[in-house]
């Protein structure tokens, strides 16, 4: 039996029907842009396509920016001292720095074997095998003709390099543009228009149907992991040319050079779901702490067993964040029982009380509710509703969006629809069918 999202299928889920009947995803993105965004890190951008400015940042200014940008727990010995122009694995030539984090640095590079641009992630020193590589190999080995594969950023290649202080795993990806949060900085009010939100969530659900059908749970769905595709690769060649003509600022240390990051140009390709670094290859119920604090499903908060429905919960919260340009739950820290109590109080105010059936699945729930499901009032329940909190829509559109949200944010995981079922939701379908 051919899968529902088979790439050659003519059913309503086939790719051409995912976009507006009037405008492509790219055209809708371009039509929504009012101003060019300032990237959240890296150099300022200028011009209609947000290409790197030719104005060099002064060294003193760069040093101030660098001090603000370096991680609080930064230890240079953990990072590979990469140099621009360096060729890694006898194949990948480093062009310019795109970003950094607690576990890696990210670079634009050129594949010298196939004459193409790729994204290189160089991890901090580690002997640990990267789960993302294993997950990508698993997905590629399936050879499924599922359209959702196009909307997942898989690993193209991986290798290790020996640094002065240890071994560093390296991963190569296809190029992708800014994440959708950076794109939203272009928009009036900083939120995604409803028409674009519907299409974006549909793409993500098709990607999830592909993952879940392959027994992969993403566990880290959030706006920062939704990247816009690059339709025109010439913008990458232009970045390379800009680096040659106007090198990025840098700071020279005794044993390495620290480079400023360049922002990726604004692009308008179809979205892809990135970062399989926290994904799980598993069937059935799982255990353990997963998901970012702000997007964590209640069954995970209470230490219950969980399955791929945690991704559906995260899709619901992501849709809210993109539409409202703010998080559904306002307490980011979950370090103590008091923090968890405040989160549960918010959930109750917006979603109603959890079913007793759900609470009885975990002894942890007895910290916050009694055995009959009554709230112990460890935190005050805010006087609000999900209807009053939602401010971007009105009329039937608001009603249908909240209906969609309640499906995804159901306390009972088994009552949340699958990705395949949720894509049939009336609000998500809109006027496109």
TrEMBL record:
InterPro entries on file: Kinase-like_dom_sf, Prot_kinase_dom, Protein_kinase_ATP_BS, SRPK
Alphabetically ordered keywords of this record: ATP-binding, Kinase, Nucleotide-binding, Serine/threonine-protein kinase, Transferase
Sites where the protein binds ATP: 121
Keyword Protein transport: no
Annotated ranges, domain Protein kinase: 92-428
GO biological process, one term: spliceosomal complex assembly
SUPFAM superfamilies: Protein kinase-like (PK-like) (SSF56112)
EC number annotated for this UniProt entry: 2.7.11.1
Reactions listed under catalytic activity: L-seryl-[protein] + ATP = O-phospho-L-seryl-[protein] + ADP + H(+); L-threonyl-[protein] + ATP = O-phospho-L-threonyl-[protein] + ADP + H(+)
Protein name (record): non-specific serine/threonine protein kinase
């Amino acid at each position: 039996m051919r899968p529902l999202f088979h790439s050659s299928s003519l059913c309503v889920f086939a790719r051409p029907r995912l976009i507006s009947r009037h405008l492509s995803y790219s055209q809708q993105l371009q039509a929504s842009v009012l101003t060019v965004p300032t990237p959240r890190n890296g150099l300022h951008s200028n011009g209609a396509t947000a290409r790197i400015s030719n104005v060099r940042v002064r060294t003193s200014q760069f040093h101030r920016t660098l001090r603000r940008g370096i991680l609080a727990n930064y230890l240079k010995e953990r990072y590979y001292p990469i140099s621009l122009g360096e060729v890694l694995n006898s194949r990948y030539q480093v062009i310019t720095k795109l970003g950094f984090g607690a576990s890696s640095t990210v670079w634009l590079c050129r594949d010298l074997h196939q004459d193409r641009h790729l994204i290189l992630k160089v991890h901090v020193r580690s002997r640990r095998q990267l789960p993302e590589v294993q997950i990508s190999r698993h997905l590629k080995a399936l050879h499924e003709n599922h359209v959702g594969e196009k909307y997942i950023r898989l690993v193209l290649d991986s290798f290790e390099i020996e640094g002065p202080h240890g071994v560093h795993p390296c991963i190569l990806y296809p190029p992708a543009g800014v994440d959708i949060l950076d794109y939203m900085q272009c928009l009036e009010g900083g939120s995604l228009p409803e028409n674009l939100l519907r299409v974006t969530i549909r793409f993500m659900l098709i990607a999830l149907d592909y993952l879940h059908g392959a027994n992969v749970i993403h566990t880290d769905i959030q706006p920062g992991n939704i990247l816009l595709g690059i339709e025109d690769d010439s913008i990458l060649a232009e970045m390379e040319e800009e680096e040659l003509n106007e090198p990025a600022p840098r700071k020279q240390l005794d044993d390495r050079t620290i480079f400023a990051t360049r922002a990726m140009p604004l692009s308008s390709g179809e979205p892809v779901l990135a970062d399989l670094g926290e994904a799980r290859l598993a069937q059935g119920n799982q255990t353990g702490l997963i998901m970012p604090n702000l997007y964590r499903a209640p069954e995970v908060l209470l230490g219950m067993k969980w399955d791929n429905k945690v991704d559906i919960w995260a899709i619901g919260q992501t849709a809210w964040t993109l539409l409202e340009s703010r998080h559904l739950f306002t307490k980011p820290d979950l370090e103590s029982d008091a923090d968890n109590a405040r989160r549960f109080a918010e959930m109750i105010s917006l979603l109603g009380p959890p079913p007793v059936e759900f609470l009885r699945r975990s002894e942890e729930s007895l910290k916050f509710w009694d055995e009959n499901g009554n709230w112990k009032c460890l935190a005050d329940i805010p006087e609000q509703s999900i209807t009053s909190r939602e401010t971007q829509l009105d009329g039937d559109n608001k009603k249908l969006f909240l209906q969609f949200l309640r499906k995804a944010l159901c306390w009972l995981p088994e009552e949340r629809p699958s990705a395949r079922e949720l894509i049939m939701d009336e609000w998500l379908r809109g006027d496109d069918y």
